[in-house]
Amino acid sequence: MSTVDYTVNDAVAIISLNRPEKHNAQDESMLQDLDARWREAAADDAVKVIVLRANGDNFSAGHDLKSEASGYRRPGKSILESAYAWEAEHYLGYSRRWRDIPKPSIAAVKGACIAGALNVIWPCDLIVAADNTYFSDPVAQFGISGVEYHAHTWELGHRRAKEMLFTGRSFSADEALQAGMVNRVVPLSELDSQAMDLAREISAMDSWALAQSKRAVNQALDIMGQQTALQSAFDMHWLGHANALLTTGYPLLTAQPLKSSNGTKGDHDN
């Protein structure tokens, strides 16, 4: 069974996360399949808009830590060097590439959208959230400064971003709408239909105009320093990994949380 489904309908590419039995936790295979589907949609001239969605009850529980560390070891390289390179490609690198694909993209999210799931939705241009969606980034429990695609400040504003990181608590779709992180909140039963309606409305526009409009906004973000900030935060994220390795003795990202205020493992238990 494929970890990511792909169909094209009325000039709209529909990419569906497909590990519902694992709450769509992202293992290496899923991430590689997801990147391949993004590339396929980008290369297909018949596709004008991309919709990212998920099968099952939850959009994504984040990283699947029980499987991801298997890709870390590289012959002749330290665990730090190997794991940094792996995450730079599979997390920050993939997210940056998806963000800059010159076609409008819409994330349709529901249920849990935890930590590593933010790496997947934040590169999208628009976000439609079901009314049962909740978001969180609890990785400070691991002694780490947030997920790898560290767009918190850009997505939420600096005060809400700090609250998200400092507390690790979940916040609702309505709170995300208030902060400007999502475009609209809809009933769960209407999530897919409303996301597709929006995609079809956008697909009626001229492709060149859509690509240039997207580029104009993304370049404005870059001029304001977004790409530099993302790289800086990724390196700070890795300082946390190095510290966790030294202080806990566990392999990177398979460490137990250093402390938990709510009794959950957050992003990663599958």
From TrEMBL:
InterPro entries given in the database record: ClpP/crotonase-like_dom_sf (IPR029045), Enoyl-CoA_hydra/iso (IPR001753)
Top-level taxon in the UniProt lineage: Bacteria
Family to which the UniProt record says this protein belongs: Belongs to the enoyl-CoA hydratase/isomerase family.
Protein name: Enoyl-CoA hydratase
